[in-house]
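Homework help board

Subject: predicted structure for assignment chain

Our instructor gave us this sequence and asked us to write out the predicted structure in token form, then describe one feature. I got the tokens but I'm not sure how to describe them. Can anyone check?
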Amino acid sequence: MALTLENFKQEIDATILQRGRQYYRAEQVIDLEEADDGMWSAQVEGTYVYEIEIEQGTQGELTCMCTCPYDWGPVCKHIAAVLYAIEETFPAYVEPKPKKPRKQRQTRQEKVLGILKGLAHEELMALLGELASGHREIANLILARYSAGGDDKKAYIRLVKDALNQGKGEYGYIDYMGAVRAARGVDSLLQRAENDLNQGNTSRAVAIYQAVFETVVEAISNADDSTGSLGGCIASAVEGLGESGELLY
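My token output:
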């Protein structure tokens, strides 16, 4: 039987369910947000801060994802905790559906974009400068997307290494949450390469794909890539090189 908001208390293992309820009651579910109708994201504080995504299908079935390394079953205690939070915060999804459609709520991203659109150019530039100076990950994101690297592979290798460094711990090891953070930065470069490929700048796209492939393959041996985030970057780079080869030859 598919997992739903109506049956999750019966379908989830009793021990996992109890621990999830404890997490929820201890207010360890933070930043719960409905990104769209029937789509939620949240964070749960445990040994680390884990990221959870839950999506409700057309028949009420739930698709759940958590960044924790639990592999003993389809649902971990963090997902169970978020299901309790959704049940409490969004009762309309559990109770009978109202006849009238619910008023669409703005997502956090939509609220932020609305504020940014209202800022003057000088205010926006000052904000971006402040964020980039205080958060290395944001600075790397801007460099990855907009720096003038040409088709110099070495320049992109440095950017990939900067992204990977964001995921490294005290002894240089990338744990599974670090792998997620590092992959975000690498994904920005991959997006740039894809845009270059679509715009006919194949040589720069190839340089980026090669930089990602060579650098991430070397780094993944010293990483816990349980979520497959870094492996996905490697796969995207290989796919991009294949598409580039077809255009070049």
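Reply (TA_rk): Your tokens look well-formed. For the description, you could write something like this. The chain has a mean pLDDT of 85. That's the kind of observation they're looking for.
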